[in-house]
Input
Amino acid sequence: MIYHLKQLTVFLILLPLPSGLDPQQLPTMSDLGVQEIAPDKRSAFPFSGGETSALDRLNKYLWETDSVAVYKETRDGMVGSDYSTKFSTWLANGCLSPRQIYWELKKYESKRTSNQSTHSVVFELLWRDYFKYVGLKHGDKLFNLDGIMGKQIEWKQDQKLFEAWKEGRTGVPYVDANMREMAATGYMSNRGRQNVASFLTNDLKLDWRMGAEWFESMLIDHDVCSNYGNWQYSAGIGNDPSQDRKFNVVKQGLDYDPQGEYWLLLSGAHSKKVVQLEGQVVEGVKLEGDGIVAVGGEDIKEALTSTSRTRTQ
Ligand SMILES: Cc1cc2nc3c(=O)[nH]c(=O)nc-3n(C[C@H](O)[C@H](O)[C@H](O)COP(=O)(O)OP(=O)(O)OC[C@H]3O[C@@H](n4cnc5c(N)ncnc54)[C@H](O)[C@@H]3O)c2cc1C
Output
């Protein structure tokens, strides 16, 4: 309540610009001495920033294309813009509020359709809110190695493995394509984020904060609570630590990019063969049973099977 009153007061005392003052144009990147960034044609977020563009997307995703009515079926897509809402970047930058989305959805549900897909979008927004509350409750623990659970796990800080993950050259096509997408465009799908985070924490057993920090420096939708909260979740030290969060990244690649369309888009490769399990080798990934024993052509069986992630508490 006090918070709302304070906000209202600030709003009321915010005076208009003095007359005759020319607010001028916002400086460009080059005016600020920074190199202009050319948008990457492959981006799943080919939109511009700002509230106008955010409202336009909201309108198109709901009313013009009815994409929201099939969200549940499309949300794990990898290519294009409409498999998910793409609201996160505007939300993170304050151009759109979750309440605006919520009320527009309610309107859509009453006038067009209310189904599992429209409910799912609200459910995802609740995750966002939930991570905000996790942040409020646990404060700095969001950045602690042991997480909000205070669970001691021995993590490694192997720079070589980290660089391979970061630059998308682990040899696992699905992981690499996602990492390359984020580096080139600043966006990565939710399915991709879960997989690359699981790979870093569960397969490479690297300090999860290295991954979270890399995400923080790359994502155009970076949000402290969502990012660190999700990373802790993946690392098994945040919410829901009881469940096994490990993804079989090779299987996921075959499930979610069966034709290799996504891999081809990001890798520049010319053959779809790279995503097929031929014998025991998938583009540098050597499999033994269900497990990955070599990455990027190098045998890292030691690294992947070592007991480096033993509980010390
Ligand atoms: C390791 C990891 C790091 C992440 N880092 C961020 C981050 O920095 N910023 C961020 O906004 N999201 C983050 N997410 C959550 C999610 O991946 C993105 O919000 C989503 O991919 C954005 O695309 P979208 O807007 O099309 O999402 P949609 O699938 O259309 O979902 C609608 C909205 O719901 C919210 N949402 C969906 N999934 C989640 C989730 N798991 N956690 C919290 N909110 C969610 C977002 O606000 C999103 O815009 C992260 C997830 C993981 C696994």
